[in-house]
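Possible regression after last week's pipeline update?

I re-ran a chain I had predicted before the update to compare outputs. Posting the input and the new output here so someone can diff against the archived version. Not blocking, just want to make sure nothing changed silently.
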Amino acid sequence: DWESAWDNHENKDEESSSTQNGPWLQDCVVSLSPCSDLLVVAREHKAAFLSAKWRTDDSGREEMTLAVSWTGTLSTEEGECVMSSICIPLASQKRSSTGRPDWTCVVVGFTSGYVRFYTESGVLLLAQLLHEDPVLRLKCRTYEIPRHPGVTEQPEELSILYPAALVTIDGFSLFQSLRACRNQVARAAAAGSDVIQPPPLAYKKWGLQEMDNIVDHSSVGIMTLCVFDQMKNASVLGGFNASVKGSPPAMSQYVTVGAGPFTGFYYAVEGSSQPLLSHVAMAVASKLTSALFSAASGWLGWNKNKSEDEALQKQKPKVEPATPLGIRFGLPDSRRHGESICLSPCNTLAGVTDDFGRVTLLDLARGIAIRMWKGYRDAQLGWLQVPEERGDREFSPSVSLPKRHALFLVIYAPRRGILEVWAMQQGPRVGAFTVGKHCRLLYAGYRLMGVNSVTSQGWQLHTQQVCLLDPTTGALRTVSVPFHLALSDKKCERAKDMHLMKRLTAVLKSRDVEPDVLENEARSILLDIKHPAIKKQALESLLSTKNAPVSCLMNITRALNDTLKQQDPNGVDTALVQLCSSQLKLLQLYSDIQQLHSAAETQDEPENDSLEGMADELSRVGPTLQRYAQLTSRPSVSFAQDSPDSPLPAQAFLSQLECTEDGELKVIRRSETEWNQLGNFMFWGCLCGKSSLHKVCDTLQQAGISPQQLLTLLLSVWLQREKEVLQKPEETVRNLHSLLVALSNMKGAVEESWDPQSISPWWQQVRCTCIQSHNAAAALLAALVAHRAAKASITSRADSKLQSEWEAVSLELEQWVVCVRQLENVLVLQTLLLVPPPQGAAGGAPAQCSIKALLEGGTGGIADSVSKWVFRQNMSPERLKEILQTREARTPPTEQQFVILRFCLAELLVAVCHRFPHSLSPDLLFAHCCWEYVVQWNKDPEEGRHLLWAVEHLKLVSSPHIQLGISTMMWSTFIVKRFSAAAFLTEKVKYTKRSRTQIFDVGMGDKAMTSFLCCCVQLLQILMEVDSAVEEVAAPELSVEEAWSGAEGPASIAELALEHHPDARRHDLQPQGQTAQPV
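New output (post-update):
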């Protein structure tokens, strides 16, 4: 059932040289670090340490294993054997620590009474003889953050049980001593320095009385009784006249198991016994040597001569007497003998095993048994405390309450070979697993030592609570229980759904799952979820995964949809039903389009009448398209995922479409890349002729997508795939025409009753897209096709209407004539701008032209673009003059001549000038080139050639009015400040020694200064000449081409020059010319 389906995965393997499969492990002392990074296996006087290591298996997958890192003999006295061991991870004191242990200390108790502390590599750090009886059990308690206000923080401690005594070592004292001993070991190994005496251990020693036999114990911690319990205890112990203290004393509670009584409860009042200090000094009397690294070399590894060593062995340290501690009460059962006790993480419950095969649950606060299981002989116990996971209370009205914890008892019955999990306190069995009969259940019951409320802030403690070691397979498995198994009723259903949601997420993230397995697993989980909101979340998560194929998504969604339809309509969530049906519709549409593109069908040839004259148009603009294609076909670098040929995933398709309330589909425009991918998926196969465009259009129309959005997608993919379109223009143009006609015939595309005196919104959408596009060739082809389609559509409409409506036909077609003419001009201009500059010339990306950009650039936008291109081409003024003179002498080149001379830059410029006779008139072009060069010179004054060519371009301007305005603007904007600085410097060097630092005050060197002043002389000469010529010649009238009369934007340089009123006159300019002439 589903309860047994939660994970019980194998996460570590044990590498051991032993191949024995019998119950050998039952005779060993086994302990595991709570971090699962160190395993200790000991028997008699020998031990093996296994440390965590990464290993690559045969399939290439990395996994964590436990490999033998040290083996050797632990005992140092004759005849002593290992009785108990624990692994205590010590927290790092570095601020950068995130919760991983710094190192792990192995604590081992022997039959001689010694307790020895080792590192992971078997180096003996410390040895203590605290009692002369065998050590029965070692247990540890570490710091835990209190879950509720008022709960006492329990101190860290190490408890050592002897047959009649209990020793508790303070955790802080132990932590500092172990760190000091480890540091002194490292120093001795490195330099052999003197031994630094570690701080002594602070411990308490209690003599447990009034109990016949003790085999195990638990140190519950410090507790404070309530007032009622204090009065009750005082009355029981002291009688009727007993006195009660004002405040209840703090007491340490200890629970022991054994016989006579079966369970004993001891309470040690704080302050009744003073802490004892261990005699560590006797072990640190000399220097450490290299033999320190041998764990069997002696106490702390001191190396002396043989006689001194034997004397130390014979000398026993002083053993302090124990403080008597009487039993408060117990659970008497003369026939029952306790075998082990396991304290819960919350310190309120404990599980006890006995020789009758019973497991008893104790309430430690009340001192009573509250539950008992039978049939568990030789049972091993462990506890699991599971916190409430995020999202388990998402739908709870009390979300602000603190996080809850669920408590489970894990029982391993080796004789039955079964592992069971029980909910506390009176909960049912929530899980059972069949395991081997020779396993060991490893439960530490503690975490990292050395942690407090300050250092643990922000730490993520990676510890395991319960692990099962199987010696037959060498596998170490962890036991994990979902939180929701502790709940019941509706809360349990919601928590179960959250658990199923997590399982679904894990399945979807797995990459090595077969599609059939993924489909079956996801369908089963989705149908098992009960809560509508979680089911909706699961469906959305499923549809957004990239690993599931489309068929899998469709089958699962269809199964869910069928299940919802079979349920009572009143009890089904409407939003979930709508989501399921809409996503199923989108998946079906995706699958249909995919199948249409994958089917090798040849579409029907369109009618020749609809493309009448299109071949002539293509042959007319063909040479320009060919030259444009050559200039745009340069290799470029792009990412594979950004390639337009990459297939569109179903998840991306679903994210860009949504169903409206009326059942239609709406395309959501996200990023430009996603929009182009969707357009490629729908229409590129039709444009290439690989798919039946009529079937694709019918499928999209039946799905309910508006024709306007389909038109936008079609035009976007057409403009984006310009390079591919130009490779086969005839075929792609024919397919585009068929698609445009098919889309325009859809319902809602072209309104049946649009006003003949207005523009059709449908065709206006096509024109706006072409006007804004920077892909000049694709936009021109789209405009030519749309012009033909619109003409055929309007003509067919006009045939069935009155003759008076022919005015509307001419108005719509006139818009197309102007648009086509503008796009042809833009194509020729863009072709010119794409010509690469010669090597060594000034770089820069070519300008991107469009009708919208040129109109917004104002009347001088076209001349400004060409002037920047002239500068990038490093074209001299004389060469530009020759080309423009050739333009005036020749007639405009035909398209046949253009294709022959397409590699001639001059002829290409002439063709552009013939396209823009007014915007690129010689005076206008020279004026813009002059201004461009002076702007570039101002950026780098060391390039004196730029200023020289600016003056040369200014000389070529024939209109004195334009010359005067531009020269005046040049002088006042760029020249006058540098000229004044140069004049001041000239006067200065007459009286002082000339130095280069003075030259740099002007911002240029000697050579550039000379060229600058020569240009100033020429510019001032032009100013004086044109100042008198403007009175004799009328100002020119500037105009633009009819197709570009709608330009809006800044005025051209020539217009600014005509509007400029210079203040300079001849009598003002002569002194400045005289100043520049001598230099």
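Follow-up from reviewer: compared with the archived run. The first helix runs from residue 171 to 191. Marking as no regression found.
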